[in-house]
Amino acid sequence: MKRRDFLKGLVSTSYVVLSGASVLAPLNALAAAGAKKDDGWLTTGSHFGAFKMKRKNGVIDQVIPFDSDKYPSDMINGVKGLVYNPSRVRYPMVRLDFLLNGHKSNTSQRGDFRFVRVTWDKALHLLKDSLDEVQTKYGPSGLHAGQTGWRATGQLHSCTSHMQRAIGMHGNFVKKIGDYSTGAGQTILPYILGSTEVYAQGTSWSLILEESDTIILWSNDPYKNLQVGWNAETHESYAYLAQLKEKVKQGKIRVISIDPVVTKTQKYLGCEQLYVNPQTDVALMLGIAHEMVTKNLHDTKFIEGYSLGFDQFLPYLMGESDGVAKTPEWASEITSVSPEIIRDLAKVMTKGRTQMLMGWCIQRQQHGEQPYWMAAVLATMIGQIGLPGGGISYGHHYSSIGVPSSGAAAPGAFPRNLDEDQKPIFDSNDFKGASSTIPVARWIDSILEPGKTIDANGSKVTFPDIKMMVFSGNNPWNHHQDRNRMKQAFHKLECVVSIDVNWTATCRFSDIVLPACTTFERNDIDIYGSYANRGLLAMQKMVEPLYESLSDFEIFTRFAAVLGKEKEYTRGMSEKDWLVKLYNDCKAANAGKFEMPDFEGFWKEGYVYFGEGKPWTRHADFREDPEINPLGTPSGLIEIFSRKIAQYGYDDCPGHPTWMEKAERSHGGPGSNKFPVWMQSCHPDKRLHSQMCESAEFRETYAVKGREPVYMSPADAKQRGIKSGDIVRVFNDRGQLLAGAVVSNNYPQGVIRIQEGAWYGPVGADGSKEGGAKVGALCSYGDPNTLTMDIGTSKLAQACSAYTCLVDFEKYKGKVPEVSSFSGPIETQI
Amino acid sequence: MSASEMNASEMNSVAVVNQARAMVYRLLSSLFAKEVDHQLLHELTGEQAQAFLAQLASEPAFKQDIDTLISVLNTLKTDKALLELAADYCGLFLVGTKHSASPYASLYLNETGSETPLFGEQHQQMVQFLKQSQLQVQTSFPEPADHIAVILAYAEHICLNSGDAEQLKFIESYLNTWLGNFAAKVTQCDTGTFYSALARLTQSWVTSDLEGLSQTTH
């Protein structure tokens, strides 16, 4: 009775809980009926491949690869985890101190702070107010909205395009040039071979399989990297790798993997490995070239007819200009490859047909321009550029390069720039003497040292005084180097905005965080196979955007509305209108060549196939007639010596390929006394850069004690008393991280691997929860860029040098912190 | 007094009791559903709500936590104070799952803990419960159905619409099984005092309510 009286007493207060409506509502009959449509299979595309998906009660249930994908990546098992992972940004959020104090907030709180939820309307007005303040006070040099990231699949909802068009309608801003993947390569190769090469279609695999006698995989692991593509990946390259494996087995093609590490590709193909000391590939190439000249193995006719400047290079090679002949013995000292093997390589590479397939890792190091240039020189000396199965490629490990293109016209995309007749609200182009475009990897330098002038690719770049950054679908707290340096830079920024799906570290270091939905929560169309252009995929919305997330189109349409420019932004068209337009424009461009149904038919079917393309040989036209089909170099020929580069007068990138010692190098190189181990941070095997790291269940298939694996040699492990499964602290003077040990014979002594894309999760230096925002913090998950060096490759490309990195490591005996990478902002006392 | 009159009175009494219980569940649901804003603060510091809270606090098990709630509410005199409380709410319930106390049943009922994907089994179960009762989660509340505010709101609904045995079963199986761990996590992660008091109050209330229900069902 007591309980009853107590409860009756509550009613007698006549209180009525009014506070907002109940979170429950009567069942909407229409919605309930709609949910029954769960049963059908929907089609979509992702970097990890195309797939079909089925829902259960409105939730993604089954994911299966596309029928035509014969080599699906197991990464599609992580797709559900991408959508439903607990790191999602659920609502628009603002850092509390920024909300209270705006551009005068305590910026040292970034990365370790308190956020509050705001409405979309409030968030978008705050964004506009911040942009107003920066444009008014500093002009366009105060805003960097050009630090953009990779890509989310879909031609309509490109995060970069939407953000830059919308922010561009407000005012002008600093932009980037280049990218982190191939910064050195894409800068040097236009001088040497006339195009970036790294993103160009290459000789068809079928021709390589037919014509090559020898394939050199130089720092190249296509079997690992071809799982992902720029567009929805078809994985057709794997069929060719399977044939190659067979030919290796039959002894018909000799494949040599030149790499310090036993790669996934080497293991798959069952091919040879040639170990080379890290960062010494140029010395090895010079040794091979020296032997070719000494034994007269090089193709002098090809060199004379198709290249320029061999004469200026030769004195350096033979030691006449610097007193050091680049003999196999000389190279052996640096590379640990025996002179006999170097001599044999020169013979092998010039006998029969040799296809060189270069990976991207060796250009992501100090002087990263050199190995690409010298490899082109070697290929020129071999004399097979333009022949099927010969010459050099810089891209066969990327997307569907080497798979013949269908030749169909690809669909356009939502515009990135303003339309011709449109003007921003703040139309000033006064960058106050600073550059409006800066090399991609030099933005932290720019924040820390505004006004400083550096050399870059033949020009002078003066760093703008950046006060505000806007990121969309971009996590530079993954791909940039040296976290502690980044923290110092971020303390100087007045406002940081991040639009993303998940609480990436970049979001955690932001003031305004806006939730974008995943690619699976919106309708779009994508190319199937970036280079193969095998067809078009309908990216059918799997589920409605979760929480209050919105599509990029919707986010920036709303922002444009805040600017009073909604119609200008969308050109008066809805998402559906745009999809139909992009499709119909593509259909018109392909009329008479490739049959395409009307939009409704396409959408219902889920895809259109363009069929297969014809085999093709890169640079065949140049070889056929270099006068009619010149390369895009200044001379139209392959430039072994570049007069243009020589004229720049750079000490770290002279006029011909040159071996230069690195700031840090293992195996007896500079700094190896203190930190004896080289850390490589290659593209991951189970992610696309940092995409997919948040997918928890899938991450557990490779993580070690919940941490990113650090792969190491048995000798290094034994020396430090480490066994597989141990938690290891990896460190140098720049930073420290925890990772999970995997001891493997694939690694030589003095080399460890931590794959890039491991989400940054800083905690206190001593492993305590507090102090992650501070300089010196410990990364609890194992982000290798905690340790890497933030210097340019050279005055030419000024690209990132992540691969020039020495570390040491030990068994971790301190307090083991919980991994903080996937948790959103962690509130601690400053 | 005739027998039929007694029954009517008894029935009325049961209805009043269930109405009271529903009010408590509704209040708890509202406080977990969103931040305390000006409107809610005005309501909670009003005379009737204060009387309601005072009556709740007359139960010793609830007193300390209700006192905390009231004293925090009385400090919310400025926008900044409201924002600080909103930041507590945000840090606990709106971001991440590991270093916060995300209010989803699934995170406390699965072995994978804070790494459990959302919109999973517990969400599906709640959707089914709601559907059976011709209900759904408000579109303005875009959260998984195993959010504590949804479960408490559903408890409110069944207080008024279901028999005691059914109520007991639901509250025991779908709320009480994880509420203790949730309340502990809130207490561990809360940088203020309001939400840890609210979580403990919810736990004490559910414990007491289950006791009451088990008496009436036996």
Radius of gyration of chain A: 28 Å
Pairing-aware structural class of the strands and helices of chain B?
Answer: mainly alpha
On the 0 to 100 scale, the average pLDDT of chain A is 95
Strand order of the largest sheet of chain A: 6-5-20-19-18-7-8-15
How would you spell out the order of helices and strands of chain B?
HHHHHHHEHHH
Unreliable stretches of chain B: none
Binned strand content of chain B: under 5%
Domain Molybdopterin oxidoreductase (chain A): 88-560
Catalytic activity (chain A): trimethylamine + 2 Fe(III)-[cytochrome c] + H2O = trimethylamine N-oxide + 2 Fe(II)-[cytochrome c] + 3 H(+)
Protein name (chain A): Trimethylamine-N-oxide reductase
Main location (chain A): periplasm
Quick overview:
The complex is a heterodimer of chains A (830) and B (218). With 830 residues, chain A is α/β, with parallel strands linked by helices. Chain A has 29 helices and 32 strands.
Outline the structure in words.
Helices cover 30% and strands 16% of the residues of chain A. Chain A has 830 residues and is an alpha/beta fold. In chain A, the strands form 7 sheets. Chain A has an 8-stranded mixed beta sheet. In chain A, strand 19 (495-500), helix 21 and strand 20 (512-515) form a beta-alpha-beta unit. In chain A, helix 12 (281-294) packs antiparallel against helix 15 (328-335), helix 12 (281-294) crosses helix 16 and helix 12 packs parallel to helix 17 (369-382). Chain A is globular, with a radius of gyration of 28 Å. Chain B has 218 residues and is an all-alpha fold. In chain B, helix 3 (47-57) runs antiparallel to helix 4. The radius of gyration of chain B is 18 Å and the shape is globular. The mean pLDDT of chain B is 92. Chain B has 10 helices and 1 strand. Chain B is 74% helix and 1% strand. Chain B has helices at residues 3-33, 38-44, 47-57, 60-75, 79-93, 105-109, 121-132, 148-161, 164-189, 194-217, and one strand at residues 135-137. The interface between A and B is large, with 64 and 78 residues.
